[in-house]
Write a structure and sequence with these properties.
This protein is mostly helical. It has 20 helices and 6 strands. The strands form 3 sheets. Strands 1-6 form a two-stranded antiparallel sheet. The protein has a two-stranded antiparallel sheet with strand order 2-3. The chain is elongated.
């Protein structure tokens, strides 16, 4: 329909196409085709939610103590036996009325479980016994991440979010270089492979490396899916689509809660959401390439093919060459001079806004993930607390949508941050015996940060 893509002697009509106007006035800004593709790209958001929030259950640290060979059952040792039968009094040191979970008294005789069989010397645990209440199996119980190795639990979360940071940068740049669809497929493949391999890690070191790679890839999945979905709709539907994908994210969080409550084993939980995700690799045959990316990279024939497919699915007549000409931009955009970050800093107003946005993102992210991943710190059942924290995101995203639609982004952001900050501050001041009120303000803080 035009000159060869490599030729620059004549401008291809598609190069100057006003895609937004074409979608709104000719193809449809949110027709059947866009709704189908948008639904497809929203589904992996649930997977990324499960991966991101899994540490709430994977990293749960149960009560624990040393195993006492002469006293504990050699077949199925139970954590509570030492306290029910009373031998904790002469086998486990206590400080300020609390038993030490990382040491025991040295045996002087292994004949009977009696006070005279233990001396005053203290040693570290040879083996540990865990109080299996909420989770039957976590990475803590599998790799014994307690006592001198308890540093590995917060380190695993830090490494995960380091992977998120690296993945956001790497896959964000790759999306501009090789296209959104290719990045989606590449990051999905990495997510599935590394996520499944992490379950079979022989040591904590292998787990941390694979968890980093999984975190890195899953953020690439979300980014590319988000962009693919939003780029395909008209301007009037972008706020709606930008918010609706987050509801799928919350659905993924709730699925994780059900899996964790039912399975109580971090390996089974991970396999329950990772193995079915192999089906997402079939998106290679379902997802379109980004029309805007194809035009920006002068792949005009492919861009036209994607536009014709959208028109066909939406039940409108196929595009003609005259349509492409009619929906061209009124003024041909000239090549813009490339500007660096330093050029931005020369504009005080823009620099100020940029710093405000950076700070807002930092605070919001710390609040959102800090509250979400600390469900186990609340009084009560960890599964119920996590579910309540996830459910608060539904009204949070609804308020965001209606707020941005009718009140504007600035007012919505200020209102949300005031709610979140005030609720968290009040919750921190409440005494520990007011656990219900603490949890209520904790939930309000999560709603505001959402």
């Amino acid at each position: 329909m035009g000159p060869n893509e490599g030729s620059r002697l004549v401008v291809n009509p598609i190069e100057n196409l006003d895609v937004d106007r074409l979608l709104e006035e000719r193809i449809g800004d949110f027709g059947r085709y866009q709704r189908w593709i948008y639904f497809l790209v929203c589904l992996p958001a649930g997977l990324t939610a499960a991966i991101t929030m899994a540490s709430v259950f994977n990293n749960l640290v149960p009560e624990h103590r040393c195993q006492i060979p002469v006293c504990d059952s050699p077949v199925i040792p139970q954590y509570r036996d030492a306290f029910i039968l009373g031998y904790a009094n002469f086998t486990i040191p206590s400080f300020n009325g609390e038993y030490d979970s990382c040491s025991r008294y040295v045996e002087v005789s292994n004949k009977t479980c009696a006070a005279e069989s233990f001396g005053p010397n203290i040693t570290s645990c040879d083996k540990n016994i865990y109080n299996i209440v909420d989770m039957k199996r976590t990475i803590v119980t599998d790799f014994d991440l307690i006592c001198e190795d308890d540093w590995a639990v917060p380190m695993s979360e830090s490494i995960f979010f380091a992977g998120v940071l690296v993945g956001a940068i790497v896959f964000g740049q790759l999306g501009d270089l090789i296209g959104r669809k290719r990045v989606f497929m590449l990051s999905m493949l990495q997510t599935v492979v590394c996520g499944i391999l992490a379950v079979f890690s022989p040591s904590i070191k292998f787990y941390l490396v694979l968890n980093f790679l999984t975190a890195m890839a899953q953020v690439g999945v979300f980014q590319s899916a988000f962009v693919l979905g939003v780029e395909l709709v008209g301007p009037k539907k972008r706020v709606f689509c930008g918010i609706m994908i987050e509801f799928f994210f919350v659905f993924g969080e709730l699925v994780l809660a059900v899996l964790a409550w039912g399975l109580r084993d971090w390996k089974k939980i991970a396999l329950a959401y990772m193995v079915p995700s192999i089906l997402f690799l079939g998106y290679f045959f379902l997802l379109p390439r980004s029309i805007r990316w194809l035009i920006a990279n002068q792949k005009f024939c492919e861009a036209e093919a994607e536009l014709q497919k959208a028109a066909r699915w939406n039940g409108v007549p196929q595009l003609t060459e005259q349509d492409i000409i009619n929906f061209k931009k009124e003024v041909l955009e000239e090549a813009e001079e490339k500007e660096s970050f330093l050029d931005l800093l020369r504009r005080p107003k823009l620099t100020g806004r940029l710093l405000v946005v950076f700070f807002s993102w930092l605070v919001t992210t710390m609040l959102y993930y800090g509250l979400s991943l600390n469900a186990s710190s609340l009084a009560g059942n960890v599964f119920l607390n996590y579910t309540l924290l996830s459910l608060t995101e539904f009204p949070g995203y609804a308020i965001s949508y209606f707020g941005m639609t009718y009140c504007g982004r600035k007012a919505t952001m200020i209102f949300s941050m005031l709610i979140s900050g005030s609720a968290c501050f009040i919750s921190s001041l409440l005494p520990s015996h007011m656990s219900t009120l603490q949890t209520t303000f904790f939930l309000l803080g999560k709603l505001g940060s959402t």
